[in-house]
Write a structure and sequence with these properties.
Layout lengths: L1 H15 L10 E4 L5 E10 L2 E6 L6 E4 L5 H13 L19 E5 L1 H6 L13 H16 L8 H12 L8 H11 L21 H17 L3 E6 L10 H12 L4 E5 L3 E9 L7 E6 L4 E6 H6 L1 E8 L12
Antiparallel strand pairs: 1-2, 2-3, 3-4, 5-8, 6-11, 7-8, 7-11, 8-9, 9-10
Helix pairs in contact: 5-6, 6-7
């Protein structure tokens, strides 16, 4: 009987002890959009904190300004009181061949903002619509409640390329956007057929210029080329795909061009040397969401870019 009481007493003491997690060096941070980031803090340098997300062997630099104010304070306080990162035993990715399961999906946010796949019809404007989907997401992220006009963006691309032909390359459309701006779909609805002789009136150009100022001044938008059209062969490299995944992880859709232009909204699969997953995209050819396999990205895709906006841009509604 005594031995039984001793056994039970020991068991009670064991369960009374604090539970120490094997991952106790992970911290929970939030970004400007309120999204939770569970990661180890490795290093703070030049206003960027190096993170190793839970379950990952890859670290990456995350802009401190993209974190919430409270998380920024936590990170600064941590590195002001310790000389070593929380996981002082961290080794470089090559020394830890441990694959990560990625699960990044911006489709839910896309739908939460009442956005939906848009249809290019029988026109060859897939690149215009890939950018349109990307911009719709970017503007909705900043508080806009309307979608942009692909018809006007197509006209902008024509002016940048100095031609009258339906459809455009990414770089011409982006050049036209930077020069003329954009208008909303209700200002200029997408047409069933291309009208090569159409020109916007002064009122529409004024609205577009005003919206361009919002992009440059209020949102401080920046185009980041993961791979440009210059001297580009068909098929993206491992590094290009890693850069796409990193952009998605930060909440930025990525437009890809090649055989067909699409807007990437997520990735699900493995990282490292065993990356055989699928990319979630929105496709204007049939106006639906679909998946691209890894082989397509490495054999057919050529260009890729995303648009970054100023941290905290979503704090105030965008007035259009």
């Amino acid at each position: 009987m005594k031995s039984l009481r001793d056994f039970l007493r020991c068991m009670l003491l064991v369960f009374a002890l604090p539970v120490v997690s094997l991952a106790s060096d992970y911290v929970s941070l939030t970004n400007q959009e309120g999204r939770l980031i569970e990661a180890r803090l490795l290093k703070l340098s030049e206003e960027k904190v190096k993170l190793e997300p839970r379950g990952d062997y890859r670290s990456y630099d995350y802009p401190l300004a993209d974190l919430s104010v409270a998380s920024q304070e936590y990170v600064r306080q941590h590195f002001s009181t310790t000389q070593a990162p929380l996981n002082s035993g961290f080794t470089e990715p090559e020394a830890k061949p441990r694959p990560k399961r990625y699960d990044i999906d911006l489709v839910e946010k896309f739908e939460d903002w009442d956005l939906e796949p848009r249809h290019q019809g029988m026109r060859g404007t897939c690149s215009i619509f890939a950018i349109t989907h990307l911009l719709d997401y970017t503007l909705a992220r900043a508080g806009a409640e309307e979608v942009i006009s692909p018809e006007f963006l197509n006209w902008c691309a024509d002016r940048a390329d100095q031609r009258n032909q339906d459809g455009a390359f990414f770089h011409h459309a982006l050049q036209g956007l930077a020069t003329y701006g954009f208008v909303m779909e209700e200002d200029l609805p997408y047409r069933r057929n291309y009208q090569s002789d159409w020109q916007p009136d002064e009122d529409l150009l004024t609205v577009a210029a005003k919206n361009r100022t919002l992009l440059t001044d209020q949102l401080d938008y920046k185009v980041h080329w993961i791979r440009s059209h210059e001297n580009a062969s068909r098929g993206l490299s491992e590094q290009h795909l890693n850069d796409i995944i990193d952009a998605l992880e930060r909440g930025y859709p990525v437009a890809i061009g090649g055989t067909h232009s699409l807007c990437v909204l997520g990735y699900e699969g493995r990282g490292g040397d065993d990356k055989r997953g699928t990319f979630h995209v929105v496709d204007s050819a049939r106006a639906h969401f679909k998946e691209l396999d890894y082989e397509y990205m490495t054999t057919e895709a050529i260009e890729a870019f995303y648009i970054e906006i100023a941290p905290g841009s979503s704090a105030e509604p965008l007035t259009l």
